[in-house]
Amino acid sequence: MKAVLLHVIGDFLGSIGVITSGLLETYIDWEYRFYIDPITSVVIAIIILSSAIPVLISCAKILLENVPREISPSFVERRLRSVAGVQGVHELHIWQLHETKVIASVHLVADPKTDFPALLDEAKAQLHRMGLHSSTVQIEAAGSRKIEEKERKRARDLGVRRSLAHLASSPPFY
After folding, report:
1. What residue numbers bound the domain in which 9 lies?
2. Is 18 exposed, middle or buried (CB count within 10 Å of its CB: 0-12, 13-18, 19+)?
3. Number of domains in the chain
4. Which of 51, 99, 114, 134 could form a disulfide with 110 if both were Cys (CB 3.0 to 4.6 A apart)?
């Protein structure tokens, strides 16, 4: 909607600029009057570009499924881990569908004795409080072989990231 408004304003300014420069060129007897039209065109182009660039950046972030700046995935993960019965959180994905709608999907690992429907309701309520109104929550029973493999892989990946961070902060070898 913002892009449409900016387009209409750009057209309006273009029309006003063309009419004004045409009238000035016609009725003013000034030796530099023919420079009015190109100067007006450049000013209108600068105004349109300065308003279009933020819209393009916003669209690119949405198309690239970027996590919105105001939402911290680590904070969302901590809040989900604080839900009673949750033993682990993985596959947390947060992205922006359009300017006002942010969605998420997550896998929660829970004790098999936990009341899964109540856990699902509480997890969705936590996400809703953080502005994630459309979410998909998958609950997995702890202790299953598949879950243990995922947790081991996550721990291994985290160890690799820490090792790489350590190497990056170390002095050069030469």
Report:
1. 2-63
2. middle
3. 2
4. 114
Tokens for 134, please give them: 């459309």
Which of 135, 136, 126 has its CA nearest to residue 77? 126
Q: How far apart are CA 66 and CA 85, in angstroms?
A: 30
Same domain for 57 and 81? no
- Go through the chain and tell me how many residues it has: 174
- Rg over alpha carbons for the chain, rounded to the nearest Å, is 28
Provide the pLDDT confidence category of residue 163 given band limits of 50, 70 and 90.
low
User: Is residue 24 assigned to a domain?
Assistant: yes
Q: In this structure, is residue 68 part of a structural domain?
A: no
Count the Cβ atoms, other than its own, within 10 Å of residue 89. 19
Check if the beta carbon of residue 86 is closer than 8 Å to that of residue 119. Answer: yes
pTM beyond 0.85, yes or no: no
Domain boundary residue, one of 63, 92, 110: 63
